[in-house]
Amino acid sequence: MNKVALVTGSSRGIGRLIALRLAGQGYDIVVNFNRNRKKAEEVQAEIEALGQKCLIVKANVGDVEKIKEMFATVLSEFGRLDIFVNNAASGVLKPVMELTEKHWDWTMSINAKSLLFAAQEAAKMMEANETGGSIVSLSSLGSMRVLENYTTVGVSKAAVESLTRYLGVELAPKGIRVNAVSGGLVETEALDHFPNREELLEDAKKRTPMGRMVQADDLVDAVDFLVSDKAKMICGQTILIDGGRSLPVS
């Protein structure tokens, strides 16, 4: 029986690349999406072309009942889960004084609340495996630095990193490793929603010590490492992939 990986928000962007990387390593994949089924079907075709099974599941991860339904579907279809990548994210990009309760609740539900309840469901399946399992979340530099218009997302990602530590400690005895990957600025479709997109890109290009921006594959490499046996003693950590951008260089 092949091992199985579920990647939320994997119909596009970094989630898609993670799903394809894991499929290339022999995992059957669950592609989760919320809006664009056509994009999900395109990823499914790419995964099946690699010789792996692929299940598409539509679910808004901000809805706990939808989360439970998604994992029940995975259990019914595959009977196991080995890797859960918590990648789906959303957020409202506005100054602090323009934020509403709806903006806050939406972002926290999609980005932070979803990790807790999805991790619960994933853990129930993974603890049945002889080799346990691995949970990895995607975070961002905004969890630790103040970025313009990024309040709701930055706070939600800080919550993801904190929750990663708590989950890491509580799930480790079950053989389940929980970690996160935090990235510097990456040029993806998500960046198109930032009103100061060009300014951010220029800043990242000029002020990253490694001499280039972080690329999507850099984050995929980190996720790939954390779910592998090479990271078997890494627990509850957030690995920062930013080319040194966050270092206090004078």
Explained architecture:
There is one protein chain. This protein has 250 residues and is an alpha/beta fold. It has one domain (4-241): NAD(P)-binding Rossmann-like Domain (Rossmann fold). The chain is 44% helix and 16% strand. Strands 3-2-1-4-5-6-7 form a 7-stranded parallel beta sheet, sandwiched between helices. β1 (4-7), α1 and β2 form a beta-alpha-beta unit. α4 (101-126) runs parallel beside α5. This is Enoyl-[acyl-carrier-protein] reductase FabL.
Using only C-alpha atoms, the radius of gyration works out to 17 Å
CATH class: Alpha Beta
Looking at the structure, the CATH topology is Rossmann fold
What is the molecular shape?
Answer: globular
Distance between the termini: 53 Å
Order of helices and strands: EHEHEHEHEHEHHE
* Helix share bin: 40-55%
How many H/I helical runs? 7
Major sheet attributes:
7 strands, parallel
CATH homologous superfamily identity: NAD(P)-binding Rossmann-like Domain
Supply the helix-strand structural class: alpha/beta
User: Strand-residue fraction?
Assistant: 15-25%
Mean pLDDT: 92
CATH architecture: 3-Layer(aba) Sandwich
How many structural domains? 1
Q: Strands across the major sheet, in which order?
A: 3-2-1-4-5-6-7
According to DSSP, the number of beta strands is 7
Sequence stretches where pLDDT stays below 50 over 5 or more residues: none
Short synopsis of the structure:
The protein has helices at 13-24, 37-49, 64-78, 101-126, 151-171, 197-207, 216-226; strands at 4-7, 28-33, 54-58, 83-86, 133-140, 176-183, 238-241. The protein is of the alpha/beta class. Helix 1 (13-24) packs across helix 7, helix 3 packs parallel to helix 4 (101-126) and helix 4 packs parallel to helix 5.
